[in-house]
Structure formats: C-alpha cells, structure tokens
C-alpha cells in the first residue's frame, strides 16, 4: 500500500462499521435484536412474516389494508416461468437445493417484469416477487427430486402455509404454519451478516437485485453462515443413530479439536435472542408431536457447551431440531433460511441503492517485493 | 452499536485494508500494477494468458513444461455437460450474456469432478475448469442467440485463439489472438476490486468456488465496475451515429451532470497502467484494420477529460474501442472481462481459504431508536 491514509482493519473486518443502516438494531452485549427498532420478541409473539416483510421494506408497520395488499401481491406472484422450471428439471436430483436456488434466482431475472428497472419502487416489486419465487423454488425442487407431482400454489394462503402446502402436498396444521412463520420472522434479517454483505457489495456496483440476491444465496450456503443449521442436525442425527450420550459425543468432538456448530456468534456475547424463541419452539413442537428426544438431546448439549466452553447457542442450534420436528429434510434447512432472509437481503439492497457508493476496500500487499524481474521462459 | 471497539470506516470501505494478499501489488500514486510482484508491462509485453494464470494460481512463473501442461489441461477442460448447455438454450435470446454466465457458473458446480472438495488442490483444478468453461459459455451463448451453429473447441489452440474460434467460427489472425491475449492479461486481476471482494466474502463462509465466482460475476456486471466498458462504447456509438464532435458531445453530457464512464479510478491517482497498453492496442488495431476513427474519437475525449476534468482514462476506456475493432459485440465486453478475471477471482478465493476468517463487518444503526413500541394491528 502506498496510500498514507489506509487503515488496517482486523481480519474478517471484525468490528469495522462498513455502513450506516436503519434496518436492523443489534446490541450484542444485551442480546437485543430489533427490526426498524421493534424488538424481535414482539415480532415473534405478535407479527406475521408478511407484516415483517412490510416492516423491513417500508420502515414501518402496515395498516390492516396494507398487509392484506401485500399478502395478495405475494399470492399473485406465486408463478414461475416455464423456462425456469425447466432449468430446475435439468438439475440432477442429488443437487444441493442451495445450488439449485442460485440458478433459479439468477434465471428469474430474465422473466422479471422489471428486468430493466433498478429504481427503488421496482426493487420493492422485485423483493415481493423473489420472496414468492424463492419459496416456490425450494418446494418445487424438493418434489422434483423425490419424483412427486408438483403442487399448485394457493394464492389465498399465507406465505408460510402456501410454502408447506407446496412442499408437502397438504395444508399444514395451524401449529406448523405458525411455527414456520415464527422461524421466518426470526431469520428475516441480521444486519451485515456475510450473505447480506455479499448482496450489498454486489448491488453497490449498480448491478441488479437478482445478481445481489444470488450472491447472498451463495454466501449463505457456507457452514460458517447459514449452512451451520444443517451441520447441527448432522451431529444430532449421528448421536441418535449411535444411541450415544449427547454430552459424551460432543466432548469427543471437542477432544478432536472439532468446532461444534450452532454455538457462539461474532456479534452476540450473551444469548442470541432468536435462540430463546427457537428453544421454546423446539420444546413445544417436540412435546406436541410426542418426539421430545431431539429437543432433550439439544438441551443437554447446550447446557454442556455453556458450562464447559462458555458458549451460547445461536440461531442455528435450535432451528435444527425445530425444522426436523416439522418434518423438513435436513438439506432444506439452509434453503428455508433463504426463504426468510430474502426479505432482509432485499431491504439491504434497496437501502444500499438509495445512497450508493461502490464497496471497494484495499488489500495490504505481502507478496514478493516489487519489482520482481520477469525471467524469459528459456531461462527458467 | 454498543461495542466500544467498533471503528467507523469511510463509505464504501474506501482506504480500508480488508485483508493481506500476495497476489496483486498496486501503487496508485506511481501508476504501478504487478501480479505476484511482476510488473504488468512486462507481462503484457512478454507473457501469455496461460502463463499469467499459472503465475496467479501458483505464485511463480512456470517452466516451459509447466505452462505446456496447463495449456493441455485448459484444452482438456473445454467441454460442457449437456444439461448446462440445455440451460443456456432455455435462456431467452435477448438475455444479457452476463446474466447467462451467472446461471452457467452456478450450474457447472453440479457436474464438477471436485463437487464435494473445497481444498487448495481441488480449487486449483476448479480454477482451470472454470477458466475454460466461462470462455466457452460466452461463445456458445453468443452463437445460440444468433441462431448460428455451435463451434467445437480445439484443444490444440491457446485459450485466446480457441475463444475467438468458438465465437467467430474461424481461426483468428495472429494479431487478433495476441490482442485478445494481452487484453486478458491486463484484466486478470486487480486486488480487492468489488467483484473479487464479493467472491472473497462468499468464499469466506466456506461456501464453494462456484458460488464465489457467481458472486463475482454478479458484481462485475454493474456499470460502476466491469459494466463500464459497455457504457463507454454506447457513448462512442452515439457520437459515431450522430456524426457529432466527440468533445462537444462529452461536454454536453457533463453539462447535464452525467458521469463519463471510463474515467477516474478509486485507486489510481495517475494513469492506470492498463490504459497505457489498451490505448496502444486501440491505435494499432484501428490502423491495421483501416478503422482509425474509434481510436481517434476516444483519444480526443481522453485529452479533453484530462485537461478539463483532471481525470485519467482507466482500464475500461480503451478496451471499448479495442474490443469493437476486434469485431466483438458490445454486450460481450463485460463477459470478456469475466473470461479474464476468472483467473484472479479464483486466485483470491484460494488465498482466502488458505487462511480463512468469516468476513462480517458491522453496520451503524441509524433507524428509529430502540425500542419502538409494537402497536397491535387493530390500533394502527
């Protein structure tokens, strides 16, 4: 670096404030998460995913008419161009759903009514469309790979109920619908997490919403991010299959210097407020379905990790047992994270474009000192 | 923000050193660009794109055998799974090639021999494959949209010659092959530019190479980044069609407060060393083809912008007239940037994963003060 004004950031940009934002408030010391200033506990207790989307995209809670309108628009956008559906059919049946989602969102741009528009209003419309289409893609691909007939969307249902209908081929119980709805609310946004940051970096070149969301999906897949909920369940499954003692099993992993997914968070130094809700959901769903084991196992591991490692469970830990108890396949856990997080990604892309500047940091060069002589090939 | 240790970065992370890197050295004051310490002028004068790829991926120049091996591997990887080709056929003929590229790279992961591997050696193999496949995708889609028969790759040709063969259906002249090769060398890497940064943010979640490169492609498309070379040509074309005076036309745009693409750079405060080469290429190609107008027009605009606005031409400015004189369609300019930049993106992803940490900055919350009361819907 020749510039005299360059500032060295900690690795991974930890603790660097990369932008201002009015979407998500986090207090990592107090364990507070709020969307547009409203506490996540209030939203989880009283809101719906549709209302939360409205809040994220419009910076205020909707009136009854406004939320009904948004629900109607989401219902109307439950359609998919045949070419995109044909692309899903071309994906191998053993493809990871997260990879399929990346293709679908990339392709949906061709068929978007606002293909050529990148203004605020057009991007809100794209947010609505993508919210509907991402959920449909996950459901469609899951049925395609299982050789099950595709299920038509029902525009009269809530987003959560329609997703479960298209996935499972039957209307969900009110309990399952509400459980998924709360999970979607809890996962909707989380400030500058890695996928949202990837989406903002992409959008800031004045590329487009679909490109930005595709970047977000690619980043969310990683096991250090959204992929962690799948990794948690793989451990629970191994314990279950081996009939092992959960604490003994985790102790064994730690002895092998393995990281236990679902614990610790760069931002929270106390309990992740989303974990509070998901723990409760995991417990309630387990009991109501007569399958309390997944929760019990998770709870033992959580208590051990807290006392032994001083690490708190994060959002991923109890989403694993919750989703499993809802009957969802493990490789759909991260896609369902995307089904929710599209709302936050879109809000961040819109915010980025409202006051844009290219996101282009520097690297400190630590390679061979310039100038390294170019040696002609005959003398190498 | 509650954390006491947070550091406010300038907007767009300008001047923030986000990572160390041994790939690309830039001295923005002196106008120096070097890959692995070797000056870009030496590489443009003496190297080939294959050799530059080897240098970027292996941190040293190859022996004669090593570069021959890499050429052979690139040749062998000139193949594409039928399903990916079928996806290209499903894209509308008027789709933007940059969007098609995003789909193709997303999908190529399914058919990658190293699908499940994310280690250093596997990622070098993926870099080789993607370098071949991205070039093929651009050529295939261009022929598909023009209803021309697809051209089989020729594994015996250089990367540049094969690309031009597959694009145009005939072997290029040595001049055209060398011109493209130099353009690919010049565009191969540029430190933490926005697309490379998007790729590193994606890779750092331990997602995969294909996801990271897809993020890079999405970001490169933006007119504040790779998309600028297309924007430059649109202006040259308008001037040409109107028979206008180039300086008068640009003066008119400035009077309307429009930005002139292809000028200024966040990092260089003197001439972009890539522009030096591209200016020469634009002049030489124009003269040898008997079409000096595109260069002359560009040169007048450059001189005006330098004297009037104190802005230097950047890499995008002369690549527009160069590519046009090579007979390349304007909406392939940015895809050709990607055909080159895949080499740098891959080098950065590999470097990121060799010493990884999740890239997760913070945002400063500037929305309504927490806690905003949740007002029940019946009272709104």
Protein topology:
The structure is a homodimer of 380-residue chains.
Chain A: E1 7-8, E2 16-21, E3 24-27, E4 32-35, E5 38-39, H1 40-46, H2 49-58, H3 64-76, H4 82-90, H5 97-108, H6 120-145, H7 159-168, H8 174-187, H9 194-203, H10 209-220, H11 228-242, H12 246-255, H13 273-288, H14 293-309, H15 315-325, H16 333-354, E6 362-365
Antiparallel strand pairs in A: 3-4, 4-5
Helix pairs in contact in A: 1-8, 2-16, 3-6, 4-5, 5-6, 5-10, 6-7, 6-16, 7-8, 8-13, 8-16, 9-10, 9-16, 10-16, 11-15, 13-14, 13-15
Overview of the molecule:
The structure is a homodimer of 380-residue chains. With 380 residues, chain A is mainly alpha-helical. Chain A has 2 domains: 24-223 and 331-354, Citrate Synthase, domain 1 (Orthogonal Bundle), CATH 1.10.580; 228-325, Cytochrome P450-Terp, domain 2 (Cytochrome p450-Terp, domain 2, Orthogonal Bundle). Chain A contains 16 helices and 6 strands. Chain A has a 3-stranded antiparallel beta sheet. The longest helix of chain A is centred in the middle third of the chain and has 26 residues, at 120-145. Chain A is globular, with a radius of gyration of 22 Å. Strand 1 (7-8) of chain A pairs parallel with strand 2 of chain B, so a sheet runs across the interface.
């Amino acid at each position: 670096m020749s510039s005299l004004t360059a500032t060295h950031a900690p690795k991974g940009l930890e603790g660097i404030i990369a932008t201002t934002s009015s979407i998500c408030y986090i207090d990592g010391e107090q364990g507070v998460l709020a969307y547009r200033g409203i506490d996540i506990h209030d939203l989880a207790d009283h809101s719906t995913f549709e209302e939360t989307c409205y809040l994220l995209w419009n910076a205020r809670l909707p009136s009854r008419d406004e939320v009904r309108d948004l629900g109607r628009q989401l219902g109307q956008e439950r359609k998919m161009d045949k070419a995109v559906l044909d692309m899903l059919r071309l994906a191998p049946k053993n493809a990871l759903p997260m990879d399929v989602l990346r293709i679908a969102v990339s392709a949906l741009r061709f068929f978007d009514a606002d293909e050529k528009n990148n203004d605020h209003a057009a991007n809100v419309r794209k947010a609505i469309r993508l919210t509907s289409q991402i959920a449909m893609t996950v459901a469609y691909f899951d049925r395609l790979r299982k050789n099950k007939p595709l299920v038509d969307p029902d525009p009269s249902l809530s987003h959560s109920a329609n997703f479960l209908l298209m996935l499972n081929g039957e209307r969900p119980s009110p309990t399952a619908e509400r459980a998924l709805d709360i999970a979607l609310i809890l996962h909707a946004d989380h400030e500058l997490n890695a996928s949202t940051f990837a989406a903002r970096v992409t959008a800031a070149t004045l590329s487009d919403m679909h490109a930005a969301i595709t970047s977000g999906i690619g980043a969310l897949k990683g096991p250090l991010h959204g992929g962690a909920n799948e990794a948690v369940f793989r451990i629970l499954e191994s314990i279950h299959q081996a009939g092992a003692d959960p604490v003994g099993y985790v102790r064994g992993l730690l002895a092998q210097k393995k990281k236990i997914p679902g614990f610790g968070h760069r931002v929270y130094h106390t309990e992740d407020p989303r974990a509070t809700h998901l723990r409760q959901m995991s417990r309630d769903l387990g009991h109501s379905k007569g399958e309390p084991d997944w929760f019990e196992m998770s709870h033992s591991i959580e208590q051990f990790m807290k006392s032994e490692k001083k690490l708190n469970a994060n959002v991923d830990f109890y989403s694993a047992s919750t989703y499993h108890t809802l009957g969802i396949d493990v490789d759909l856990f991260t896609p369902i994270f995307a089904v929710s997080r599209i709302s936050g990604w879109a809000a961040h892309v819109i915010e980025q474009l409202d006051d844009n500047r290219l996101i282009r940091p520097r690297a400190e060069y630590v390679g061979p000192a310039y100038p390294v002589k170019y040696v002609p090939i005959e003398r190498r």
